[in-house]
Each structure stands twice: as structure tokens, then as C-alpha cells.
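Researcher: We are triaging several targets before committing to wet-lab work. For this one, the compound of interest is S-adenosylmethionine. I'm pasting the protein sequence and the ligand SMILES. What I need is the predicted three-dimensional arrangement of the protein with the ligand bound, expressed as C-alpha cells, so it can go straight into our comparison scripts without reformatting.
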Amino acid sequence: MALIVAHCRPGFETECAAELEAMAQAWDTELTTEIPALGGLVFGRGNVRALAEQMDVKLLVFTRQWFLALEEVELDPKNRVDGILKALGRSSGAALFIESSDSEPGRELQALCRSITAPLEQALKKAGMLREGDASQKGSDQRLHVLFLDGSHALVGYAPIARSHSEPMGIRRLRMPKDAPSRSTLKLEEALQEFIPRDQWPHRLKPRMRAVDLGACPGGWTYQMVQLGIHVTAVDHGQIDPRLMATGQVEHRALDGFLFKPERRVDWLLCDMVEKPMRVAQLLAKWLQNNWCREAIINLKLPMKKRFEELERCLDTIEKPMLDRNISFELQVKHLYYDREEVTLHIRVLGQG
Ligand SMILES: C[S@@+](CC[C@H](N)C(=O)[O-])C[C@H]1O[C@@H](n2cnc3c(N)ncnc32)[C@H](O)[C@@H]1O
């Protein structure tokens, strides 16, 4: 029986399940979720083929990656390839992802995932089930997925390339830049890659644009903007990395981020202040209503309990005034790989009407 398999950060399965159920409810489609003991995964059963027709990873916060599994197969450890081929039936795809969950036991299966890649690809190509070529050029095509649950059990199926994540398990691994002031820099780098299509960077992230970074210190987010040639007003009572000041692109203002007002509209608002999420959501709503920024990336630190519900309340606080004033916008929220107990939100104001 087919099921939807969703990957999430271990510890966030409840939120991932809640959002899948909310999605199904919004589309009036039957879905019940199950959280397997392995961690980092949620399974959905019900009218899953109908859901898989519309489901898009970009519309989900806690779901990093997903696919439609056709069946769970028991594999002979001496010949896993044949078992997978048989289970895939007549399915074919333009790419193949071999995955495990992001939990402790799942990570132990990564060596197996790597070692089976070449023989499985070869066998799939020989059987005409894996088409050669650049998968990114085949936006309307599907990708085959194999998810190892342990050394002798896997879920096999497929996902639409255009509506699933471009990386296995939805994890975009980034290298820590040597001269960045903090690891937080990876959160913004991942957010930019996730939310802004590469071909739009030249006009949305261009040199001499202006950004305000609230809660900027020691400067990991400011660093990302500086690398792009953007000028940053870094607002924080803390110490900013002197190497950033030396670029001449950064102005440090030792002020409260909740009271700061820009002198004129800026291209980007960034905010990574450690604060109650609702307070940060209200601050973003204020910036948007005053038309102080074109785009914003903010981090919302989630509470310990009712994280999904609190996020919904925050989103309502941001979206409602925009909808009431007939201002069109694009909004994306993601629990990124480099996020911990937090999610990252991007909003772009498109204009009135
Ligand atoms: C998680 S750190 C930011 C890290 C930063 N994004 C980076 O990449 O280096 C949070 C920062 O928010 C600052 N902060 C907290 N409340 C603030 C407020 N009300 N106004 C300005 N800064 C604040 C803290 O001083 C701290 O430096």
C-alpha cells in the first residue's frame, strides 16, 4: 500500500505530522500520519496518490523532503539491488536519491547508501528505469527514491522533481566559510539558497543594495551580505567582528532592534534576535506596514510546546495586515538544516493589488 514519506529534523516529527494533516484537511483529502520509531520521518496513509499530485515541499515548513513510497521491501543483504529493482516495478525516473533518515540510526546507514549507489544506478540504467542526463533540466519529470530503514528493509518510490527538494533528504550541506564570525552564517546562506532562485540573485541581491541586520552580532549574517557587496546597518548592543567594519560596508548601531527605524526604505531586513517569536513577528509586521523593506529574512525561535500552533499564530500576525491592505507578497517558511529550535521566514513585498 502506498504511503507518503516525509523527512524532518529528529525531534520535530509531531510538527511535521501536524502540517501534513493540515495540508490534507485544506485539500479535503484523507490522511492519517504515523511517526516511526527510527526518528526524523513521518509516514502518511490514506488518499496519498491524490496528495502526491499537488504536494510541494516549498509549501511545507517542517517537511524537508518527501516521496510517494510504493512499498516496503525486505532485501537480501547479499543482493539488495535486485530486490529494489523488482519493488520499483515499472517506475522510472530522471534521477535517483538513496536516502536514510537524519536520526542517529539513520545516519549509520549512510555508508550503505553510498556503497549501493553505483551498482543500483547501473542496474536501473540497464533496465531502462533511470534516464541519463541532467535531472535539473527535467523539471516536469520524476525522481526515484530508495529510503533504507535498516540494512534489510527499504521504502521505494518516486517524487516529482519540481515539487520535492533538490538535495537528498532535503539537506543542503554547506562549508563553513573560514573568515565568517559565527556558525549562524550558514543559516542565512542556506536561507538565501533555499528562498531566492539563483537566476534572480543578480537583481535581488546586488552590490550596493542596503540591508538592516537586527541582532547582528558577532556578524555571521552581516558577513553573507558583505560578501554580496551589500551595505549593512548592523543593529546590536554586542560586539561586531572588526573584520566586517574594516570592509567599509558596515555601520554598527548599538541600539535596541525593536526601536530602530531606518532613515529610508532598505532592500533587505534581516533579524536573528533571540526573542519570543510573536514579538519578532509583530516587529516584521510593523516593518512591512511602514514599507521599510522590500524583502526580509527573519528567524523565529520556537517555543518548547505547541510549536506548530505558535508558528501559525505568528504567520497570521504577519500575513493578515498585508491581506487586509491588499498588498501582494511571497512568503516562505522553512525549518532549515542549519536551524535548531527555530524556523526561517522569507517575505518579499510585490506591491499593491
Ligand atoms: C543569535 S545572535 C545573532 C547571531 C548573528 N545573526 C550572527 O550571524 O552572528 C542574537 C543577537 O541578538 C542580539 N539581540 C537580542 N535582543 C536584541 C535587541 N532587542 N536589540 C538588538 N539586538 C538584540 C544579541 O545581542 C545577539 O547578539
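Researcher: Any quick observations?
Model: The chain has a mean pLDDT of 96.
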